[in-house]
Specification:
The chain is about 45% helix and about 15% strand. With about 300 residues, it is an alpha/beta fold. It has a nine-stranded mixed β-sheet with strand order 1-2-6-5-4-3-7-8-9, with helices on both faces. Strand 7 (about 225-230), helix 9 and strand 8 (about 250) form a beta-alpha-beta unit. The protein is globular.
Length: about 300
């Protein structure tokens, strides 16, 4: 990506995201920094003078640089949207997180599918989630979920049990554990897979953060499978976000038959209803194959331009 994007630039981006000069949103800061190829340049243009304390102490930029160094010393991986290791597929969505904290092994543009659903899940829903996860692993597809109770936990656990790769996109800071009972699972995923957070490392759980997390899950995967989700479930938010992102959505008959919210989505381009786990996995096969063909075509076009 951008040449010279180093810890000085990362610190400038962190400082901008904290200060939000002129009320800029995170997306505006990312867009303006990306257009310049430099967060530091934007900082010097836009940071307000009152970010310096009255005694002339360390500036917000210095404080951000100290935090970046401390995070690195603590073993945290900080990725900005202009870093080469940043997941490329997330740059395709409107809600691109300007920063990500990662714990585990990053993989470049890996084939991945989100498996999401209710925290309070039925036995059938949990069984579907486990079977889907195992089937995805057999196909060499990473399983993405949000480390919540219920469907997410079942998908993560089943993936690990069969030796697959799972990615947990969490709604808290990466040094937090939520729910508390999934502490061991989160640590295992960090060791054997990947944990991602778009929030500051010690951020506690807040209601508004979980829909933001769902947008990242949608963007990271090639498709979203909604196993079981009630009328107020966060999974319904992800289904709508995935449609907006142009990502395919697979709804099980379990979720369609029990709720009103999926009905406006049925019939829209990229939205599929599966009556069985086998049918859901067959749809995944088609989606992964078509995406692979599209990626190969794009690579040939780019190579021809060089």
């Amino acid at each position: 990506m951008t040449a010279g994007w180093d810890d000085t630039e990362r610190a400038a981006l962190v400082a901008l995201l904290r200060a939000r000069p002129g009320g800029m949103s995170w997306q505006q800061i990312a867009g303006d920094s990306g257009a310049r190829g430099s967060a530091l340049e934007l900082w010097h243009e836009r940071h307000p003078a009152d970010l310096f304390d009255a005694a002339g102490g360390a500036s917000a930029l210095d404080a951000a640089a100290a935090d970046v160094a401390a995070w690195r010393a603590a073993g945290l991986t900080l990725l900005t949207f202009l870093d080469p290791a940043y997941p490329a597929q997330l740059r395709e969505i409107h809600e691109v997180p300007p920063v990500l904290f990662a714990s585990g092994t990053l993989a470049s543009e890996e084939p991945a599918v989100s498996v999401v659903g209710s925290r309070v899940a039925s036995a059938r829903g949990l069984g579907i989630a486990r079977a889907l996860a195992a089937g995805l692993v057999q196909r060499g597809v990473a399983v993405v979920a949000g480390l919540a109770k219920g469907i997410d936990t079942a998908a993560h656990t089943a993936t690990l049990e069969v030796g697959g790769r799972t990615v947990a996109v969490i709604g808290t800071g990466i040094r937090r554990y939520y729910p508390a009972e999934n502490r061991g699972l989160q640590d295992r995923i960090a060791r054997d897979g990947l944990v991602l957070s778009q929030f500051w490392p010690d951020a506690p759980p807040r209601r508004q953060q979980f829909p933001m997390r769902n947008a990242v899950m949608s963007g990271y995967g090639r498709a979203t499978v909604v196993v079981e989700a009630g009328e107020t479930s966060g999974a319904r938010i992800q289904a709508r976000q995935a449609v907006a992102h142009g990502r395919p959505v697979i709804l099980t008959d379990l979720v369609v038959e029990a709720n009103q919210w999926p009905r406006p989505l049925i019939g829209r381009p990229g939205v599929h209803v599966a009556s069985s786990t086998r049918e859901a996995l067959a749809l995944v096969d088609d989606l992964v194959a078509s995406r692979g063909e599209a990626d190969a075509l794009l690579r040939r076009v780019l190579a021809a331009r060089e």
